[in-house]
Amino acid sequence: MTAPVLTIRGAEKALGGQPILKGVDLDLAPGCIMAVLGPSGAGKSTLLRVIAGLEKLDAGQLASGSQNWDGSSRFIPAQQRRIGFVFQDYALFPHLTVRDNIAFGLQELPREERAARTEELMQTVEISRLAGSYPHELSGGEQQRVALARALAPRPEIVLLDEPFSSLDRRLRSELRQQTIEAIKQSGAAALIVTHDADEAFETADQLALMEDGKIVQTGAPLDVYMRPASLTCARLLGDLNVLPARVKSGAIATPFGPIPSGKFADDTTVYVLVRPEALVQNGEGAECVVQSASVRQGRLLARVSSPDESIWLSDMPLSAGMEKGETVSLALDLEKISILPV
Amino acid sequence: MTFFRPGPALLGSLAALVAAGPILAVAWLGVTSPWDDYLTHLASTRLAGYIANTLIVSATAMLLAGLIGTLAGWAIARLEFPGRGLLEWALALPLAVPAYVAAYGWLDLTQAAGPLQTPLRESGLAVLTSWMPVVRGPVGAGFVFAVVLYPYVYLIARQAFSEQHPDLQHAARTLGASNWQSAMRVTFPLVRPAVIAGLALVAMESIADFGAVAHLGAPTLTVGVVRAWAGAGSVADAARLAIVLAFFAYIAFALERQSRSRARYGQAQGQQRPTERHALSGWPAGLVSLACLLPILLGLVIPLARLGYLAVTEPVARGVVPALLNSLLVASITAVIAAALGLGAAYAIRSGTRLGAFSARLASLGYAAPGAVAAVGALVLFAGLQMALDGLWGGQFPILLSATAGALVFAYLSRFAAVAIAPSETALARVNARLDDAAMTLGASRRRIATEIHWPLIFTGIAIAALMVFVEVMKELPATMILRPFNTDTLAVIAHNYAADERLGQAALPSLILVLACLPAMILAARSQSSRRSV
């Protein structure tokens, strides 16, 4: 693996006396797109501002390649870091046209090169026809494209995106996500995309970093993180989840759907059994459950069912007619998709 | 802001010092100097009258200005009728007319020997003249203040009306309220804090005025201060009266501050939508157009027309040109310095440091100090400084500090720095801090951010600030009377002196020129404010 383009060790930052970052460790490989996923208030935006040099670290180290950016009484200001930043509210300069917004960071280039680079980026994000417009004349999606083009224009090695799609409507969001990823890939920059939307993280990222309460709690390939969450909170960040606290007895764990093998856990340990809705599947030999409610989600059915011991479970099942309240279904656990964590 | 900016913080603190200095000096002198006969005599004779006049004048002005300003603001923000676009900014123009100029025009027009009463008497209808009100005394002064100061209420009310989300009325109507009820229960209560803030400004200005109340025979505390200094020659007595005057002014000021902070609750939350205007047609439209024209007639056109008539028919006043040049000079100098101080204070507020915010607030306190108080304070400060310098020098220090243009500009700044702070602050507040961040990540230096991001975005606001200060200084009378260098007159001073000598014919020309010099600045400021759209 090549040397990371960004290395963070033990980063701490308090704002207004409130600790926000509590020892963040993170590595970003060149050209890698990493999604930072976490609930609001986890410190995601502050992390980006610290990386960009808009805030100074209280403690810890922040380096890019061999260059120390922050920490050990050294601080490279934002102006010299050459990082692309797409702000949540885009922060387009209201008095400049789209073209001038994009060219703002290209001041050191000769005039023709600047114009050419600006033109090139407007084509990449498909806003050439808006070159002479002012930001307030643009739609939300168009503003987002301008913000992206402006950030990419000076060819940064790192692009930071703070909830870049949060103010757009759903359909536009997934279309723009794809275009954004393509534009970043094409530029060769590494990117950190902050989001609180798990689907968005899965759709955009090569790497996933889960953040909670001022710390990065797990990093890895999205599928790995999904399948093998490091903790209950990690698992919860990534989507709907059934959690069953249980105790291991004679090498097995009792569930409403029958006993499951306890794996590496010894007898008498307390564990959490984590069951994704898609791990609770229809099976002729399963437990009889009663549907409490059901809703259609992305072409499938997400049902709330009550198991034989009256506990409530979420089950993701194929769409079928007549699956309504009061209906009885037979459900079993798909052992492949279950993880067990110590308490 | 993470980064320390020494420049603005320094300017902010300077603005605070300039603004607060005179008031503190007045308070100090008033408390420490010995009481003497003049004040005891005054307390037993005129003081009660001064206070009563101050109260009647400001109450009348607030009542009338509140009525005119609120209704005009509502009509412009909520109705569509012929001439609305023009009236929107023209309604602010009476602010260019000093109250004393309006007072000259109105009194001359309505007095017994004036052009309204004389023809009636000559045609044997003398009976009718006793029914005609004469604009004089405290109520007359209140009327004059109302017709030139109502724009304070109008501007702030118009903004409050147009910022109200139309869904608020829609919600009221879906809940069963009639149009009338929704206006009475939703629309007007929501602008009440804004209107009160405007009224407080009206009160502060009418309390601080000297020329109009002196001319109309309604001497208020301000007249008392000027007389104590000019007549009795006692700075200490003037200072003590100034304290009483400042007390009334600060009541109005506190009211304004409190209402302004409450006024924020009246603003639309979330996505801004253009206000819906109810389109009028036929005779109601014409009626509203005329009604909105009326305040402009009362405050600007009628008094100026009368003075214009006098100016061409009466002998020409002398010394108008040098006075005009003096006025333009001090007003321009003060406007530029005040704009710089205002910008500094606004940056200090934006920097988010406690010192910055505090000094800016302190600076805006100066606005509450009537010109007479600021002038007496400046006298005290500069006399003290002169004494200190003389002591150090061991004799008369070469520069005579008091009664110079320097002291005058200082007093103006102390009073009007706040006028510049508010628009600068508004302008800078519209520059989102994220824009700085974005520019920084794009490699822009502090300097480039200031010149290419901030300056283009705030330029209009700063220019308006300078124009407003310019107009205020042109109009200012009492501080100029007290502090002007010997033999140096401004337009305001010669107009007042002629009027005080009962030579209104000669006062007319300088008055007229004064208003004409203020009007372009006022038109520019009013038009840019009414066309301003949020970024």
Automatic annotation (TrEMBL), chain A:
Keywords recorded for this protein, A-Z: ATP-binding, Cell membrane, Ion transport, Iron, Iron transport, Membrane, Nucleotide-binding, Transport
Superkingdom to which the source organism belongs: Bacteria
Molecular-function annotations in GO: ATP binding
Segments forming a coiled coil: none
InterPro entries xrefs: AAA+_ATPase, ABC_SmlMolc_Importer, ABC_transporter-like_ATP-bd, ABC_transporter-like_CS, ABC_transpr_FbpC, Mo/tungstate-bd_C_term_dom, P-loop_NTPase
Domain ABC transporter: 6-238
Keyword Cell membrane: yes
UniProt-recorded name of the protein: ABC transporter ATP-binding protein
UniProtKB/TrEMBL annotation, chain B:
Topology of the protein relative to the lipid bilayer: Multi-pass membrane protein
Ranges that cross the membrane: 49-77, 89-107, 139-157, 194-218, 238-255, 283-305, 325-350, 362-385, 391-413, 453-471, 507-526
Entry-linked SUPFAM superfamilies: MetI-like
Gene3D superfamilies (alphabetical): MetI-like
Assigned protein family: Belongs to the binding-protein-dependent transport system permease family.
Subcellular location: Cell membrane
Protein name as catalogued: Iron ABC transporter permease
Domain of life: Bacteria
Key words of the record: Cell membrane, Membrane, Transmembrane, Transmembrane helix, Transport
PROSITE patterns noted in UniProt: ABC_TM1 (PS50928)
InterPro entries recorded: MetI-like, MetI-like_sf
Species annotation: Hyphobacterium lacteum
Keyword check for Iron: no
Predominant subcellular localization, coarse grouping: membrane
Boundaries of every ABC transmembrane type-1 domain copy: 51-256, 324-525
Entry keyword annotation includes Hydrolase: no
